[in-house]
Amino acid sequence: MKKIVLIFCSAILLCGAVKAQGFDSGGVIVDPSTITAFDMFNTSQSQFNTMTARSAAMAGAMTSLGADASSMSINPAGLGMYRTNEVTITPMLSFSRSTTNANGFEGNGTNRFAIGNFGMVAKLRESSTGVTAVNMGFAYNRTADFNYRYSFSNAGAVGNASIADVFAGQLAAGGITSAALRENYNSYGDFVWSRYDPTYWGAILGYKTGLVGDAGGRWGRDMVAPNATTESYTTVESKGSAGEWVWSLGINFNSKFYLGMSLGAAVINRERHVYYGEGYRYSSEPALNYRMDYFNYDQVSKMKGTGVNFKIGGIYRPIENLRIGVAFHTPTYYNVTYKYQGGMTSEVKALNNVDEYKVDTNGYINPPFSERTELLVDDGEYSWNYTTPMRLMAGVSYTVAKQLILSVDYQRDWYNTMRMKDSPYGALYKGYIKDEFGGSNTLRAGAEWRFIPQIALRLGYGLWSGALDDDKQIYSSPVVYRTEYMSAGFGIALSKHFTIDATYMYCKNNLTPYKTFYGYDSTVDFASATYNSSIAKHNAMVSLTVKF
Fold it and tell me: What is the per-residue pLDDT for 518?
C-alpha cells in the first residue's frame, strides 16, 4: 500500500469541469472527496453515553437526575442539585471491533484512550428558602465517538464489475477527454487538479495509472481485460470524536423545581482513511499491449469544526421520591474545514511495449505508475456550514426506600431538520434530507442501588433507532440505523471528599447495507457486491471526583 504524503496548497474549490449529467455514481470508495448529507448525519449523532462513569453506567438516563457533570450536556437543571463544589475527570479506554459479511483482509479493530469528561462545579449561592441554591459549572463532555475500522476482501468472478467501469462512466458523462487531460499541465510540468471538480479526481487517477482510457473516443478499461477475474480489497478506518465545552447555570427553587441552561462550544474532529485495491487474474494472456496485475487506491480526509448550541431544562419534584425532567437542545451550528487527498499506484506488465516504458527483468514497468492528487483544502470562505438536529428530552426517576433509583429517559431528534447552510459547491441537500431522514427515538433506562451509603451498583440499557425512512436502502455510504448499548458499573465513596466510579459499556452499531462503488445511467449499471457491517465497542471508564 502506498503511503500518501499530504501536500498543502491553497483552497481549490473553483472547479472548472461540469458535473456529470445522467450518470449516477457513489459508494464508499467514490465519495470521500466531499462532505455528503451522510457525513452530516453520522457526525450529528449524540447518544450521551460516554461522559461520566456514573451517567454511562445508567446508559445516560440522567434527564431527571442531577448532581453529575454530564447534566450540563443533558439537562442543565440537574446542576441545581449540587450541594458542594466539585471537580471530576473521566479517562476512558475504547475497544472497537467490526464484522462484515465478507472474507477478512486487514484487522477489524481499533483501541483508543480518551477523556470522556472533565468538569468543575462551584456554588454561588446557598439559602434555606426561596432560591435555595445557584450553581455554576464548566465542563468538557465527549458526545460521540468516530473510532472504528472494518476491512474485507472479495474473490470476485470472471468479468465482474470493477471500479474502472465507474471511473470510465464518470469521465464519459463529464465530457472529459484524454486529450484534455494530456494538456492539463502548467509551465512547471505539474498536473493542474484544480481545473476539475474533485468528484472526478479518482477517475483521473485511474486514467493516469492505466485503469481507464478513451481509445476510439469511448471511455472504458485500458490495461485491464474485460474478462479478467477481479479480486477486491477494502479497508475503512476512522479516528476522532465530537464533544463540547459547556458553561452552565443551575438554580434550585425550594428543592422542588430546578431550572438550568447551558451554552455549548462544540468541537468535531474526524480523520478517515479509505483503502481500496483490485487484483486481476487472467486464464490466458489478454490481447493488450499492457496487462495490469493490481492497483492500490488510498484516500485520506480530515474534518474539523467548531459550533455553538444552547440547552435549557427543568426538573420538578412533586413528591420527595419522584423527579420529572425535560430539556430542549437547539441545533448545533457548525463551521467545518475539510481536507482531502487521494493517491493511486498500479503494477503493469508490458506484453507489447509500444510506448517504450522502462521495464525490469520480468517485463514490469519500472518504476510503477504512481499518482496523487493535490491536497483539497476547504477552509476560510470556502468552508462548510451546517446545523445538526434539534432535540427534545424527557425523563422520570423514582427512588425506592432511599436506596434504589430507577430512571427512564426518552429522546427525540429531528434529523429531517438538518441543513447545509453553506458549502464550497453550493450543495444544499435540503430536499434530499427531508426525503431520506426522519425523527429518531432513543430510550434509556438506568438503575442505581446503594445497599450501603458508601457503595452504589448501577445498570443501564439504551436503544436508538428510526432516523432513516428506509434502513434497507443502499445509500452512497453506510450509515448507522440502530444503536444498542448495555452498561454496568459501581461507585465507591472513599471519604467525604473523594469518590471513584467505574463503568463498562458494550455498544453495537448496525450499518445500512452498502456498496464499495456503483455507477449507472440509462444504458449501463456497474456495482460491487453488497456488504453489511456492524461495529461493536467496548468502553471502560473511571471517574475521579473531589468534593469540597
Answer: 94
- For 542, other C-beta atoms within 10 Å of its C-beta total 17
CA distance 263 to 273: 33
Q: How many helices (H) and strands (E) does the chain have?
A: 7, 28
Per-residue model confidence as pLDDT tens digits over 386-418: 999 999 999 999 999 989 999 999 999 999 999
Instruction: Specify the residue for cell string 420538578.
Output: 316
Place of cell 465507591: 492
Q: Which one-letter amino acid corresponds to residue 191?
A: F
Amino acid at 20: A
C-alpha–C-alpha distance, residues 134 and 283, integer Å: 79
Residue 485 CA from chain centroid, whole number: 18
Report CA-CA distances (Å) from 261 to 77, 129, 264, 411, 518.
Answer: 7, 22, 10, 18, 47
What's the predicted TM-score (pTM) here?
Answer: 0.89
Amino acid occupying residue 316? Y
- The pLDDT of residue 21 is 58
Q: Specify the pLDDT at position 162.
A: 92
Average pLDDT in the 478-482 region?
Answer: 91
The CA distance from 79 to 249, in Å, is 7
Q: List, in sequence order, every residue forming a beta bridge with 202; answer none if it has no partner.
A: none
The single residue listed with the C-alpha cell 479516528 is 239
Omega within 30 of 0 (cis) for the link into 424: no
* SS3 (DSSP) at 182: helix
CA atoms within 13 A on the CB side of 256: 7
